[in-house]
Specification:
Immunoglobulin-like, transmembrane, 7% helix, membrane, five-stranded mixed sheet, 998 residues
Amino acid sequence: MKNFIFSFLALLLLPAYMSGQAIKGKVVDSSGMGIPGAIISASESKTSADADFDGNFSINAKAGEILKVSMLGFDAVSVAATTDSMTITLNESSDTALKEVVVIGYGTAKKRDLTGSIVKVDGKQVADKPNSNPVSSIQGKVAGLSVVNTGKPGEEPDVRIRGTVSRYQTKPLYVVDGILNDNINFINPNDIESMEVLKDPSSLAIFGVRGANGVIIISTKRAKNGATTINYNTSVGIKTIVNKPSLTNASQFKMLYDEQRVNEGAAPYSYYDKFTGDTNWINTIENSSATQVIHNISLSNGTEKNKFYFGAGYFADEGLIENEKYRKFTFNINNELQVSDAIKVGVGFNGYDARLPQLHDFISSLNATPIVNAYNTEQGMYNQLPIEIGGAQIGNPLANVEGKKYTQLNSETRFVGNVFAELKILEGLKFRAAYLADLGYSKGRGYTPVFDIYVTETDETTVYGGNTLTNVNQFKNDSQKKQQDYLLTYEKSFGKHNLTALAGYTRYYEGFEGVSGTVKQNINGDPIPYDKRWWYLNVYPYGDPTTRLSNSDQWDRSTVSYLGRVLYNFDGKYIFNASFRRDGSSEISEANRFQNFWSAGAAWDVVKESFMEGQKIFDQLKIKGSYGVLGNQYSGIHYPSYPNYTTGSSAVFGESLVPAYVLAYRNNPGLEWETVTSYEGGIELATLNNRLKFEAAYYNKITDNLLTFVELGSEKFYTNAGEIENKGFEFTASWNDKINDDFTYSISGNLTTLKNEVKSVYVDGFQVFDGPSILTAGAPIGSFYGYEVEGVYQSYADILNSAPSAIGDYAPGDLKYKDVNGDGKITTDDRTIIGNPSPDIMYGFSGNVTYKNFTFSVDFQGVYGNEIYRDWGNGSTFAQFNYRTDRLNRWTGAGTSNWEPRLNDGSGYNKQASSYMIEDGSYLRLRNIQLGYNFDNEFLKRLSIQGLRVYVNAQNLITWSNNSGFTPEAGGTPISFGKDTGGYPLPAITSLGLNVTF
């Protein structure tokens, strides 16, 4: 074992002891940015090295020896080696964009050989951003990609590519180092080499039944040839809330509440003398000093035979509410060994272990009355809210946060790995076999305490929340994904013909098992201790065995697939792509178990035509288009073709009551997966010596055979019925320029239009409701549905001159709903589409400036044309809530307001879903701004450091919006999103970072 360790260390350190001396430097582009992966070759010493993540390199060579420096997409240069730290500048070649290598499904390809829309995001763009999920960091950077972030620590963003295509799933397929996955919370952003966003049919069809929602491919870092490199980076950030909802203070609340009571026929509130607080509950539970700490370290060593990379990261994130703490540790190992010219093997491994936060939300702090002090110092306990002002319905927000702190202990662990072997059979023909797996384990246990709270009106104490017995909950979930890939790839150039062909067979298995349970304390016994050592189901002697409940959930599914792809171009001018995949799934009915998916695309590189010779306008001009059929295997439940049983009517036999079991719904053996027919056409061009680049595309996606659950009376069944269309345009442009050796800058932007429409659902008139959201033909998916408000009734004469309402009792000062169908009365038939949660336009733009050693970047992101449903601050008929300050402008008499109704929460008339709850969802956000400084190489040389960078970064600093809640962003399900529940803000994060390379 000792010999093995010494041999391993020797392998890592071998380059440091080779002949010559260490020639160090940095390879940069025309803007001064480092070029990772640039290859440096020494002509005499026969050594080579690759530039690291920041463009720094170290190569064993002699002073004066010629170094050849090259990188795909740049013109190669030859320079003489010097003992001083070198800076080598590479200029972009005329067709850089076309030569760029991108990762596609089951392989790589040059962008010049592609006919669709694939956007490559370099890992540097996510590595130094304060987000636990790397997709959060590319919000606004990719046309067609919608990312709706959440401020809750550890939670995934809502991600959609080119609209919402299905009823049951929105998130794209993630492919991490080859394994198909549904989330990437185990990935450390610092370990990412690149992210490719696949949007068009020619790139998605190869993923078959899982390609409909788009694909995001993530490649983690590999070592490059060169000396051993160690990189450490860290950042510390402070999180703050920048947009707090405006709520009434104590005096304003008292005024409005008394007015409301009078309007409802009650006397003014009589206990104000007992409640003298003026509490801002948001500030009370807010963690005003929330921090975020990130540490990452990586070690990389590469030779011509062996490439080894190791990365480890620690991420500590505090929530915006007290006592929310998220901790995760990640590591990544990649090792590739070139056994011989014909054989290469490799292994990759990602590990993730997290302690999940006990999350709360701000909803109760928005609803709680401000007239109460949070804590009663005389009694030494928390105050209950006033009995008549939400005491029974709204718990004291601070008591909920502090009284139950650290009572839920949840953790999550994942191991994601792959092993592969690659065999070169003949020149241009290789075979690759890979086994990939994702094993996930989550567990948790929690405790519900019992504690007293003070009731001011009666000078008594009562238990908080009405809970008189302590209890314990416990769960454990295991998940596994296993994948096998067998791929045969052939690459050949003959004459002007260039061909890459792929054939493959793959298997995929996914399974889940979960158990959970609860137990309460003995009713006449001592409480279960407030000590985590006792928080188990078998909590003897405190737990009551008769109250112990348990449950389990389990499922598995598998697919087997055959796939093929051809990439062909003639003379680099005429390009053709075709893909095919045949998927067989265990989850669908046997009659339709196998389904076929395919695509075809073509492109024309116009500038390579003879008639374009001599022209000086276009450096690149490519016209492209693709068409294909994609699949969607997601449904509301697993195995929709095989319904489970549920309890039915019981029968009495003698003295026995025998339960009956019936199918949960009628079986439909003809079910098949949804299909998405998609096409796009576009153009790519570059001009002005490649300084100005522009891309445009039109896309259209039509989902048919929607998996629809139909419930008509006692009839329940799944069927294939319905159609959704998403279409629009995407535009991307960039400008890069160099003023002189010290000053460079770049500007880029993208804009996407989106039109979503549900063409049909089941039969005419069939609709699916989810709160204020609706799925109905002729409207965007998830549209808000309710009454259209025309104003406020100003008088009884106004009421008599308006259409009578049959939906409740109303009076002057109440909302006036529109008679939409024109039948002369207000009924439920007058409900209509009152808002669209999908934006008409998504956009983002960025700027980068480099001046000597300083770098500055700024990113903006926004949406336009969508609506938000305000699901808070509308009052309640069950409990008295605090008021939005907008309610100070309520109707108090004729002419006083034509929008804010009178105060009368006792009546549900103004609580109908209506355009009164609709707010403008458009916003523009300063998403990220960063100022950095790269220390001079001469200075670093004295410290034996390759690179040192310090930076300050601010995220979500300013948002320009028109909504009344914390944030205009609101994700959700495919048919219910864009609802602002007032639950959690998106924080502004100001961080200071350091990146050092040895």
